Amino acid sequence: MTNEQLLKVAQEFGSPVYVYDAEKISNQYKRLTNAFKSVKKLKINYAVKALSNISILKFFNKLGSGIDTVSIQEVNLGLAASFLPEQIIFTPNGVSLSEIEEAAKLGVQINIDNLSILEQFGTKHPNIPVCIRINPHVMAGGNANISVGHIDSKFGISIHQIPHILRIVENTKMTINGIHMHTGSDILDIDVFLYASEILFETAKQFKNLDFIDFGSGFKVPYKAGDIETNIEELGKKLTKKFNSFCKDYGKELTLAFEPGKFLVSESGHFLTQVNAVKQTTSTVFAQVDSGFNHLIRPMLYGSHHDIINISNANGRERFYTVVGYICETDTFGNNRRINEINDGDILCFKNAGAYCFSMASNYNSRYRPAEVLWHNNKAHLIRKRETFDDILKNQVEIDFGKKQEAALVK
Ligand SMILES: *Cc1c(COP(=O)(O)O)cnc(C)c1O
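# pyridoxal-5'-phosphate complex -> structure
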Protein backbone atom coordinates (compact mmCIF):
# COMPACT_ATOMS: atom_id res chain seq x y z
CA MET A 1 0.00 0.00 0.00
CA THR A 2 1.19 3.54 -0.68
CA ASN A 3 1.53 6.23 1.97
CA GLU A 4 -1.30 8.15 0.29
CA GLN A 5 -3.63 5.15 0.52
CA LEU A 6 -2.72 4.65 4.18
CA LEU A 7 -3.29 8.33 4.95
CA LYS A 8 -6.70 8.16 3.33
CA VAL A 9 -7.62 5.18 5.50
CA ALA A 10 -6.56 7.12 8.62
CA GLN A 11 -8.66 10.09 7.50
CA GLU A 12 -11.69 7.95 6.76
CA PHE A 13 -11.62 5.64 9.78
CA GLY A 14 -9.73 7.70 12.36
CA SER A 15 -6.78 6.61 14.46
CA PRO A 16 -5.48 4.37 15.82
CA VAL A 17 -6.35 1.87 13.14
CA TYR A 18 -4.94 -1.41 11.85
CA VAL A 19 -4.81 -1.76 8.06
CA TYR A 20 -4.11 -5.09 6.33
CA ASP A 21 -3.19 -5.48 2.69
CA ALA A 22 -4.98 -8.52 1.26
CA GLU A 23 -2.69 -8.69 -1.73
CA LYS A 24 0.36 -9.08 0.50
CA ILE A 25 -1.35 -11.94 2.33
CA SER A 26 -2.16 -13.74 -0.89
CA ASN A 27 1.36 -13.16 -2.25
CA GLN A 28 2.90 -14.73 0.85
CA TYR A 29 0.47 -17.64 0.63
CA LYS A 30 1.38 -18.18 -3.01
CA ARG A 31 5.09 -17.86 -2.26
CA LEU A 32 4.83 -20.67 0.26
CA THR A 33 2.70 -22.98 -1.89
CA ASN A 34 4.98 -22.28 -4.84
CA ALA A 35 8.09 -23.17 -2.84
CA PHE A 36 6.53 -26.58 -2.16
CA LYS A 37 4.87 -27.10 -5.54
CA SER A 38 6.68 -30.41 -6.05
CA VAL A 39 4.95 -31.93 -3.04
CA LYS A 40 1.85 -33.80 -4.25
CA LYS A 41 -0.23 -33.16 -1.17
CA LEU A 42 0.48 -29.85 0.53
CA LYS A 43 -1.65 -28.27 3.22
CA ILE A 44 -1.20 -24.80 4.64
CA ASN A 45 -3.04 -24.22 7.90
CA TYR A 46 -2.98 -20.53 8.77
CA ALA A 47 -2.31 -20.03 12.51
CA VAL A 48 -5.41 -18.11 13.58
CA LYS A 49 -3.91 -16.65 16.74
CA ALA A 50 -1.65 -14.33 14.71
CA LEU A 51 -4.62 -12.34 13.40
CA SER A 52 -8.06 -13.71 13.99
CA ASN A 53 -10.53 -11.29 12.41
CA ILE A 54 -13.31 -13.27 10.73
CA SER A 55 -12.86 -11.44 7.42
CA ILE A 56 -9.16 -12.36 7.42
CA LEU A 57 -10.16 -15.98 8.06
CA LYS A 58 -12.65 -15.84 5.20
CA PHE A 59 -9.94 -14.46 2.96
CA PHE A 60 -7.71 -17.43 3.86
CA ASN A 61 -10.61 -19.75 3.19
CA LYS A 62 -10.92 -18.28 -0.28
CA LEU A 63 -7.20 -18.76 -0.88
CA GLY A 64 -7.67 -22.47 -0.20
CA SER A 65 -5.93 -22.48 3.18
CA GLY A 66 -6.91 -24.49 6.23
CA ILE A 67 -6.42 -23.20 9.78
CA ASP A 68 -4.45 -24.05 12.87
CA THR A 69 -6.27 -23.29 16.12
CA VAL A 70 -5.22 -23.27 19.76
CA SER A 71 -8.52 -22.79 21.60
CA ILE A 72 -12.07 -24.02 21.20
CA GLN A 73 -13.04 -20.40 20.53
CA GLU A 74 -10.67 -20.28 17.58
CA VAL A 75 -12.19 -23.54 16.33
CA ASN A 76 -15.64 -21.98 16.51
CA LEU A 77 -14.39 -18.82 14.84
CA GLY A 78 -13.03 -20.96 12.01
CA LEU A 79 -16.36 -22.75 11.62
CA ALA A 80 -18.11 -19.37 11.62
CA ALA A 81 -15.74 -18.30 8.83
CA SER A 82 -17.01 -21.30 6.79
CA PHE A 83 -14.05 -23.63 7.21
CA LEU A 84 -15.06 -27.27 7.16
CA PRO A 85 -14.10 -29.25 10.28
CA GLU A 86 -11.61 -31.26 8.24
CA GLN A 87 -9.81 -28.04 7.29
CA ILE A 88 -9.16 -27.28 10.95
CA ILE A 89 -6.41 -28.63 13.16
CA PHE A 90 -6.63 -28.09 16.92
CA THR A 91 -3.17 -27.73 18.48
CA PRO A 92 -3.68 -26.55 22.05
CA ASN A 93 -1.26 -26.68 24.93
CA GLY A 94 -2.27 -27.17 28.51
CA VAL A 95 -6.03 -27.28 27.90
CA SER A 96 -8.44 -29.67 29.57
CA LEU A 97 -9.42 -33.03 28.16
CA SER A 98 -13.00 -31.78 27.93
CA GLU A 99 -11.97 -28.91 25.62
CA ILE A 100 -10.18 -31.40 23.36
CA GLU A 101 -13.27 -33.63 23.37
CA GLU A 102 -15.44 -30.66 22.46
CA ALA A 103 -13.24 -29.97 19.43
CA ALA A 104 -13.19 -33.65 18.47
CA LYS A 105 -16.97 -33.71 18.60
CA LEU A 106 -17.02 -30.88 16.05
CA GLY A 107 -14.97 -33.09 13.75
CA VAL A 108 -11.70 -31.17 13.69
CA GLN A 109 -8.28 -32.82 13.61
CA ILE A 110 -6.95 -33.20 17.14
CA ASN A 111 -3.28 -32.70 17.92
CA ILE A 112 -2.16 -33.89 21.37
CA ASP A 113 1.03 -32.85 23.12
CA ASN A 114 0.76 -34.52 26.50
CA LEU A 115 1.15 -38.24 27.34
CA SER A 116 -1.47 -38.27 30.05
CA ILE A 117 -4.05 -36.58 27.80
CA LEU A 118 -3.11 -38.97 24.99
CA GLU A 119 -3.79 -41.95 27.21
CA GLN A 120 -7.09 -40.57 28.51
CA PHE A 121 -8.28 -39.54 25.05
CA GLY A 122 -7.22 -42.85 23.47
CA THR A 123 -8.96 -44.83 26.18
CA LYS A 124 -12.23 -42.94 25.80
CA HIS A 125 -12.19 -42.40 22.03
CA PRO A 126 -10.08 -45.11 20.38
CA ASN A 127 -11.85 -44.50 17.07
CA ILE A 128 -10.90 -40.85 16.70
CA PRO A 129 -7.49 -40.57 15.01
CA VAL A 130 -5.15 -38.02 16.52
CA CYS A 131 -1.95 -36.29 15.61
CA ILE A 132 0.84 -36.04 18.16
CA ARG A 133 3.04 -33.06 18.74
CA ILE A 134 6.65 -34.07 19.14
CA ASN A 135 9.32 -31.99 20.78
CA PRO A 136 12.51 -32.66 18.79
CA HIS A 137 14.58 -30.58 21.26
CA VAL A 138 16.03 -28.39 18.60
CA MET A 139 16.67 -24.74 19.31
CA ALA A 140 15.42 -23.12 16.17
CA GLY A 141 14.53 -19.61 17.21
CA GLY A 142 16.45 -16.62 18.44
CA ASN A 143 14.11 -15.32 21.12
CA ALA A 144 13.82 -17.36 24.34
CA ASN A 145 10.16 -16.39 24.81
CA ILE A 146 9.06 -17.66 21.43
CA SER A 147 11.39 -20.61 21.02
CA VAL A 148 9.44 -23.65 22.13
CA GLY A 149 11.50 -26.66 21.07
CA HIS A 150 14.12 -26.70 23.81
CA ILE A 151 14.48 -29.31 26.54
CA ASP A 152 12.59 -27.39 29.24
CA SER A 153 9.77 -26.40 26.95
CA LYS A 154 6.18 -27.08 27.99
CA PHE A 155 5.30 -27.88 24.38
CA GLY A 156 5.17 -31.27 22.75
CA ILE A 157 5.99 -34.81 23.80
CA SER A 158 9.70 -35.42 23.98
CA ILE A 159 11.26 -37.64 21.32
CA HIS A 160 12.73 -39.54 24.24
CA GLN A 161 9.20 -40.58 25.19
CA ILE A 162 8.36 -42.27 21.89
CA PRO A 163 8.41 -45.74 23.49
CA HIS A 164 5.78 -44.53 25.95
CA ILE A 165 3.63 -43.13 23.11
CA LEU A 166 3.86 -46.46 21.30
CA ARG A 167 2.77 -48.30 24.42
CA ILE A 168 -0.26 -46.04 24.84
CA VAL A 169 -1.19 -46.56 21.18
CA GLU A 170 -0.89 -50.31 21.55
CA ASN A 171 -2.86 -50.45 24.77
CA THR A 172 -5.70 -48.19 23.67
CA LYS A 173 -5.82 -49.29 20.00
CA MET A 174 -6.03 -45.65 19.00
CA THR A 175 -4.80 -44.41 15.61
CA ILE A 176 -2.06 -41.84 15.14
CA ASN A 177 -2.70 -40.20 11.78
CA GLY A 178 -0.24 -37.32 11.99
CA ILE A 179 3.08 -36.27 13.45
CA HIS A 180 3.68 -32.63 14.25
CA MET A 181 6.38 -30.29 15.45
CA HIS A 182 6.47 -26.56 15.99
CA THR A 183 9.83 -25.38 17.18
CA GLY A 184 8.90 -21.75 17.74
CA SER A 185 9.19 -18.49 15.94
CA ASP A 186 12.05 -16.96 14.03
CA ILE A 187 13.91 -19.76 12.33
CA LEU A 188 17.08 -18.17 11.08
CA ASP A 189 18.89 -21.20 9.85
CA ILE A 190 17.08 -23.61 7.56
CA ASP A 191 19.70 -26.29 8.26
CA VAL A 192 18.48 -26.35 11.85
CA PHE A 193 14.95 -26.75 10.58
CA LEU A 194 16.00 -29.56 8.24
CA TYR A 195 17.80 -31.25 11.10
CA ALA A 196 14.59 -31.12 13.17
CA SER A 197 12.69 -32.53 10.21
CA GLU A 198 15.07 -35.53 10.10
CA ILE A 199 14.14 -36.25 13.70
CA LEU A 200 10.49 -36.00 12.75
CA PHE A 201 10.96 -38.47 9.88
CA GLU A 202 12.72 -40.90 12.21
CA THR A 203 9.76 -40.61 14.56
CA ALA A 204 7.21 -40.94 11.77
CA LYS A 205 8.66 -44.29 10.69
CA GLN A 206 7.42 -45.80 13.91
CA PHE A 207 3.77 -45.01 13.18
CA LYS A 208 2.12 -47.08 10.50
CA ASN A 209 -1.13 -45.21 9.85
CA LEU A 210 0.00 -41.67 9.13
CA ASP A 211 -1.83 -39.38 6.72
CA PHE A 212 0.29 -36.29 7.26
CA ILE A 213 3.42 -34.78 8.73
CA ASP A 214 3.09 -31.25 10.04
CA PHE A 215 6.27 -29.18 10.22
CA GLY A 216 4.68 -26.33 12.16
CA SER A 217 6.01 -22.90 11.43
CA GLY A 218 8.36 -20.33 12.83
CA PHE A 219 9.37 -18.75 9.55
CA LYS A 220 11.11 -15.47 10.09
CA VAL A 221 10.08 -12.35 8.23
CA PRO A 222 12.24 -9.23 7.83
CA TYR A 223 11.47 -6.41 10.29
CA LYS A 224 13.94 -3.87 9.00
CA ALA A 225 16.29 -3.22 6.13
CA GLY A 226 19.09 -5.76 6.09
CA ASP A 227 17.22 -8.35 8.21
CA ILE A 228 17.61 -11.96 7.26
CA GLU A 229 14.44 -13.88 6.58
CA THR A 230 13.80 -17.59 6.26
CA ASN A 231 14.70 -18.58 2.74
CA ILE A 232 11.40 -20.29 1.94
CA GLU A 233 12.39 -21.14 -1.61
CA GLU A 234 15.54 -22.93 -0.51
CA LEU A 235 13.72 -24.65 2.34
CA GLY A 236 11.09 -25.71 -0.19
CA LYS A 237 13.65 -27.35 -2.45
CA LYS A 238 15.51 -29.14 0.32
CA LEU A 239 12.56 -30.26 2.42
CA THR A 240 10.55 -31.39 -0.62
CA LYS A 241 13.38 -33.70 -1.60
CA LYS A 242 13.59 -35.19 1.87
CA PHE A 243 9.82 -35.45 2.18
CA ASN A 244 9.26 -37.13 -1.16
CA SER A 245 11.97 -39.63 -0.47
CA PHE A 246 10.50 -40.32 2.97
CA CYS A 247 7.06 -40.98 1.43
CA LYS A 248 8.63 -43.45 -0.98
CA ASP A 249 10.21 -45.39 1.87
CA TYR A 250 7.04 -45.13 3.92
CA GLY A 251 5.04 -46.54 1.01
CA LYS A 252 2.34 -43.86 1.02
CA GLU A 253 1.88 -40.35 -0.35
CA LEU A 254 1.52 -38.34 2.85
CA THR A 255 0.38 -34.74 3.19
CA LEU A 256 3.01 -32.19 4.09
CA ALA A 257 1.48 -29.57 6.36
CA PHE A 258 2.63 -26.18 7.64
CA GLU A 259 0.92 -23.77 9.99
CA PRO A 260 2.42 -20.32 9.55
CA GLY A 261 1.03 -17.23 11.21
CA LYS A 262 3.64 -14.52 11.06
CA PHE A 263 4.93 -15.41 7.60
CA LEU A 264 1.47 -15.02 6.09
CA VAL A 265 0.22 -11.87 7.80
CA SER A 266 3.02 -9.91 9.51
CA GLU A 267 4.04 -7.75 6.57
CA SER A 268 0.47 -7.18 5.42
CA GLY A 269 -0.25 -5.12 8.52
CA HIS A 270 0.18 -1.40 9.14
CA PHE A 271 -0.71 0.22 12.42
CA LEU A 272 -1.58 3.90 12.03
CA THR A 273 -1.44 6.24 15.00
CA GLN A 274 -1.63 9.99 15.33
CA VAL A 275 0.96 12.09 17.15
CA ASN A 276 -0.64 13.85 20.12
CA ALA A 277 2.44 15.86 20.95
CA VAL A 278 6.16 16.15 20.40
CA LYS A 279 7.84 16.58 23.77
CA GLN A 280 11.41 17.70 24.32
CA THR A 281 13.17 16.69 27.51
CA THR A 282 16.73 17.37 28.57
CA SER A 283 17.98 14.37 26.61
CA THR A 284 15.33 13.15 24.21
CA VAL A 285 12.67 14.18 21.76
CA PHE A 286 9.58 12.07 22.36
CA ALA A 287 6.83 11.58 19.81
CA GLN A 288 3.73 10.71 21.84
CA VAL A 289 1.07 8.85 19.88
CA ASP A 290 -2.60 8.11 20.53
CA SER A 291 -1.95 4.47 21.36
CA GLY A 292 0.20 2.32 23.59
CA PHE A 293 1.10 -1.24 24.50
CA ASN A 294 -2.60 -1.84 25.01
CA HIS A 295 -2.82 -1.91 21.22
CA LEU A 296 0.64 -3.11 20.21
CA ILE A 297 2.44 -4.97 22.96
CA ARG A 298 5.21 -6.73 21.03
CA PRO A 299 7.94 -4.11 21.55
CA MET A 300 7.35 -4.09 25.32
CA LEU A 301 6.71 -7.84 25.56
CA TYR A 302 9.49 -9.25 23.42
CA GLY A 303 11.50 -6.21 22.45
CA SER A 304 10.42 -6.71 18.87
CA HIS A 305 11.25 -4.13 16.27
CA HIS A 306 8.61 -2.37 14.17
CA ASP A 307 9.82 0.17 11.65
CA ILE A 308 8.04 3.48 12.21
CA ILE A 309 7.54 5.95 9.40
CA ASN A 310 5.94 9.36 9.29
CA ILE A 311 3.50 9.04 6.41
CA SER A 312 2.34 12.64 6.84
CA ASN A 313 5.80 13.97 6.04
CA ALA A 314 7.57 11.15 4.20
CA ASN A 315 10.05 13.51 2.53
CA GLY A 316 10.77 15.74 5.51
CA ARG A 317 14.26 15.98 6.93
CA GLU A 318 15.22 13.14 9.22
CA ARG A 319 15.58 13.67 12.96
CA PHE A 320 15.82 11.38 15.99
CA TYR A 321 12.76 10.49 18.05
CA THR A 322 11.77 8.09 20.73
CA VAL A 323 8.23 7.02 19.93
CA VAL A 324 6.11 6.35 23.00
CA GLY A 325 2.50 5.56 23.86
CA TYR A 326 0.03 7.11 26.27
CA ILE A 327 -0.08 4.27 28.80
CA CYS A 328 0.78 5.32 32.33
CA GLU A 329 3.92 3.24 32.65
CA THR A 330 6.94 2.78 30.42
CA ASP A 331 5.49 2.36 26.99
CA THR A 332 8.16 2.64 24.32
CA PHE A 333 7.52 1.63 20.72
CA GLY A 334 10.88 2.64 19.34
CA ASN A 335 13.96 4.13 20.90
CA ASN A 336 16.06 6.80 19.21
CA ARG A 337 14.66 6.24 15.72
CA ARG A 338 15.55 8.23 12.66
CA ILE A 339 12.19 9.46 11.35
CA ASN A 340 11.16 12.24 8.94
CA GLU A 341 10.41 15.36 10.96
CA ILE A 342 7.34 14.90 13.13
CA ASN A 343 4.75 17.56 13.92
CA ASP A 344 1.73 17.34 16.20
CA GLY A 345 -1.10 15.61 14.34
CA ASP A 346 1.10 13.61 11.96
CA ILE A 347 0.22 9.99 11.24
CA LEU A 348 2.91 7.46 12.11
CA CYS A 349 2.81 4.03 10.52
CA PHE A 350 4.15 0.95 12.34
CA LYS A 351 5.21 -1.78 9.93
CA ASN A 352 4.91 -5.55 10.33
CA ALA A 353 1.71 -4.99 12.27
CA GLY A 354 -0.24 -7.97 10.95
CA ALA A 355 0.81 -10.76 13.31
CA TYR A 356 0.33 -10.78 17.09
CA CYS A 357 -0.64 -7.12 17.17
CA PHE A 358 -4.40 -6.61 17.18
CA SER A 359 -4.87 -10.17 18.44
CA MET A 360 -2.95 -9.23 21.61
CA ALA A 361 -4.66 -5.85 22.10
CA SER A 362 -6.43 -5.08 25.37
CA ASN A 363 -8.51 -2.38 27.02
CA TYR A 364 -5.78 -1.44 29.50
CA ASN A 365 -6.21 2.14 30.74
CA SER A 366 -9.87 1.67 29.71
CA ARG A 367 -9.04 2.59 26.13
CA TYR A 368 -10.99 1.34 23.15
CA ARG A 369 -9.39 -1.28 20.96
CA PRO A 370 -8.71 0.08 17.47
CA ALA A 371 -10.67 -0.40 14.28
CA GLU A 372 -9.39 -2.85 11.64
CA VAL A 373 -9.50 -2.27 7.90
CA LEU A 374 -8.80 -4.70 5.06
CA TRP A 375 -7.42 -3.16 1.88
CA HIS A 376 -8.75 -5.37 -0.90
CA ASN A 377 -9.03 -4.67 -4.64
CA ASN A 378 -7.94 -1.06 -4.10
CA LYS A 379 -10.67 -0.40 -1.59
CA ALA A 380 -10.74 0.00 2.17
CA HIS A 381 -13.17 -2.35 3.94
CA LEU A 382 -13.92 -1.86 7.61
CA ILE A 383 -13.61 -5.32 9.21
CA ARG A 384 -13.87 -4.30 12.86
CA LYS A 385 -15.42 -1.19 14.31
CA ARG A 386 -13.53 0.82 16.86
CA GLU A 387 -14.89 0.07 20.32
CA THR A 388 -17.10 2.49 22.19
CA PHE A 389 -17.75 3.28 25.83
CA ASP A 390 -20.47 0.60 25.88
CA ASP A 391 -17.81 -2.00 25.13
CA ILE A 392 -15.83 -0.88 28.16
CA LEU A 393 -18.81 -1.34 30.47
CA LYS A 394 -20.18 -4.43 28.76
CA ASN A 395 -20.09 -7.45 31.11
CA GLN A 396 -19.24 -5.31 34.11
CA VAL A 397 -21.74 -5.71 36.92
CA GLU A 398 -22.51 -2.70 39.06
CA ILE A 399 -23.29 -3.19 42.70
CA ASP A 400 -25.59 -0.81 44.53
CA PHE A 401 -23.87 0.06 47.81
CA GLY A 402 -26.72 2.26 49.04
CA LYS A 403 -26.61 5.89 49.93
CA LYS A 404 -23.30 7.68 49.97
CA GLN A 405 -22.16 8.56 53.47
CA GLU A 406 -21.73 12.20 54.30
CA ALA A 407 -18.08 13.05 54.45
CA ALA A 408 -17.04 14.12 57.90
CA LEU A 409 -16.66 17.85 57.80
CA VAL A 410 -13.29 19.11 58.80
CA LYS A 411 -13.81 22.14 61.03
C1 LIG B 1 1.73 -19.81 17.17
C2 LIG B 1 1.80 -21.08 16.46
C3 LIG B 1 2.10 -21.13 15.09
C4 LIG B 1 2.42 -19.91 14.27
O1 LIG B 1 3.73 -19.46 14.49
P1 LIG B 1 4.32 -18.26 13.60
O2 LIG B 1 5.66 -18.01 14.18
O3 LIG B 1 3.40 -17.10 13.73
O4 LIG B 1 4.37 -18.73 12.20
C5 LIG B 1 2.09 -22.37 14.49
N1 LIG B 1 1.80 -23.49 15.19
C6 LIG B 1 1.52 -23.48 16.50
C7 LIG B 1 1.20 -24.75 17.20
C8 LIG B 1 1.51 -22.29 17.17
O5 LIG B 1 1.23 -22.29 18.49
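# post-check
The chain has twelve helices and 18 strands.
Residues 47, 49-50, 68, 70, 91, 182, 185, 216-219, 259-263, 355 surround pyridoxal-5'-phosphate (CB under 6 Å).
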